[in-house]
From TrEMBL:
GO cellular component, one term: nucleus
Gene3D superfamilies reported in the protein's UniProt record: 6.10.250.2840, FAD/NAD(P)-binding domain (3.50.50.60)
Name used for this protein in its record: Thiamine thiazole synthase
Keywords: Cytoplasm, Iron, Metal-binding, NAD, Nucleus, Thiamine biosynthesis, Transferase
Biological-process GO terms, alphabetical: thiamine biosynthetic process; thiazole biosynthetic process
Organism: Zygotorulaspora mrakii (Zygosaccharomyces mrakii)
PTM description: During the catalytic reaction, a sulfide is transferred from Cys-207 to a reaction intermediate, generating a dehydroalanine residue.
Cellular localisation: Cytoplasm; Nucleus
Protein function: Involved in biosynthesis of the thiamine precursor thiazole. Catalyzes the conversion of NAD and glycine to adenosine diphosphate 5-(2-hydroxyethyl)-4-methylthiazole-2-carboxylic acid (ADT), an adenylated thiazole intermediate. The reaction includes an iron-dependent sulfide transfer from a conserved cysteine residue of the protein to a thiazole intermediate. The enzyme can only undergo a single turnover, which suggests it is a suicide enzyme. May have additional roles in adaptation to various stress conditions and in DNA damage tolerance.
Lineage of the species this protein comes from: Eukaryota, Fungi, Dikarya, Ascomycota, Saccharomycotina
Amino acid sequence: MSATQTATQTDNATSQLQLNATPIRHALSDIVHEEDWSDFKFAPIRESTVSRAMSSRYFKDLDKHAVSDVIIIGAGSSGLSAAYVIAKNRPDLTITILEANVALGGGGNLGGQLFSAMIMRKPSHLFLNELEIPYEDEGDYVVVKHAALFTATIAAKVLSFPNVKLFNATAVEDLVTRPKGSNGEVTVAGVVTNWTLVTMAHGLQSCMDPNVIELSGYQDDGTRDMSQKHGVVLSTTGHDGPFGAFSAKRIVAIDKNKKLGGMKGLDMNRAEAGVVKNAGKYQGVDSMYFAGMEVAELHGCNRMGPTFGAMAVSGIKAAEEILKHFS
Ligand code: AHZ
């Protein structure tokens, strides 16, 4: 062995020793001394205290959000993008997100074919910059190393806004409508909800009635309060599936002038442009907005497959229109 090799080995051994000597630090270091856990204790609690801590908050939230300014159906990538923009700009609005699944993110927890990475075409990376989500820049597109990094980051930010409440495991089963004028037209006035597990079990039990979340802007007798801006529903339930395209399918039953467009075959360039172009206010029925893949089902755009730029951008566009409505 040469003298240089010996010196290198000695250096490596010394730095390893230094690493081993670095004291371990973690959140409990100040109360657990010298790695001795034998006296570790939790603060005491009663089981009923835990139950009350959860249920009292849940029902207080349910009470507060029974009338909401903005109801977002679906917490996928488009719904969360819209929620972030609306909540950030208007902390005074009561924003309710209803998600049928337990987990947030819809298709935004994975890339395509259950791969991890999320692809976003430029300029949607500007939204990633705002959210401080790291990515690899590949020129015309960027890559987030795991789609769940996008979902987890935006979900954390959305849920931190005090005016946002997420009710997950809660499915929207119908829209509330009220007459508008005398020619049979209606306006959307809220949503009908149920625990998702109940929604899935309607065929197994006798009638299990739902709950309702109403939009703001009505008086006690159900008539419009003209001194207030009317609340809105933004539907982002994704493409057709067990739960998807929910409001698109419902709205064509309500609006006699509209037929379901039906999502067309995959064409990334056309699809992303088409979804963004058609996202936002639905012209046929008042107070109804759409973003994300549900727009493709409603208006007959192509699907884009695993590129998520249009999910973020259609959410931002719908949010901008909703903010304009409330301004
Ligand atoms: O659980 C659904 C999902 O999380 C939820 N949802 C659907 N119906 C609901 C209902 N009540 C409450 N009735 C409901 N929640 O809506 C969420 C939709 O998320 P998503 O990720 O499916 O939709 P998105 O439009 O935000 O993103 C689509 C992502 C896709 S699919 C696709 C392709 O197939 O080509 N490409 C992309 C980018």
